[in-house]
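INFO  loader      accepted 1 record
INFO  loader      residues=211
INFO  predictor   begin
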Amino acid sequence: MRLVIPDPKNFRTTEETRWVSLARACTILGVNESTVRRWADEEKIRCFRTPGGHRRFAENDLVAITNGSVIFNEIGNAAVSRIRRELTGNSSDTPWYKDLDADERAALRPLGRRLVEIVDNYLSGRGDRDQLDTEVDEIGITYGQELFGRGVGLAQAMQAVVFFRRSLDETAKQLSARHQLSEKDASRAREEIAGLADRVLVGVSTAYDQN
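INFO  predictor   done
INFO  writer      dumping tokens
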């Protein structure tokens, strides 16, 4: 999950702008030095060099980026709550779940929780993206194997993935509106979620093809 960077034209420029060191910028954003330098070179963060050649970064811009990504730290918890409500309620979108017994639900629950954690990591830029992609592929295959092994049909397995995707998408949409995230940044977050869900869908399908 990457940090969502607001359009630079929306940054507030005031005479009270505080300029901070590279180390401080990294701490505020939670990313490494090379990433901060790249964003500065791309003019996503205002920056100047001291006479000694050291970079100084506009704290206002760093805070704007951080505020723009705050909602993505909320998506995981909010999505889990939403999914739990719908699974335990009378939603017509979860017939596949109601057909599972308690043991089957318990076996799939950790996979679902891990997928939600990965969504948070995708959107906030934590972890290695290639490793996360690999793990998502493996989870999709494992999910498919679990469902197939327990006699769940392919159509129902697809319904499970679509339900997961829709729940995350709706959660992201609601939080984006609540936090007044720009349309561009909200769209980018939902594209990340869609891409992750697509990988899960392919993994599930692969598991069924192998059986």
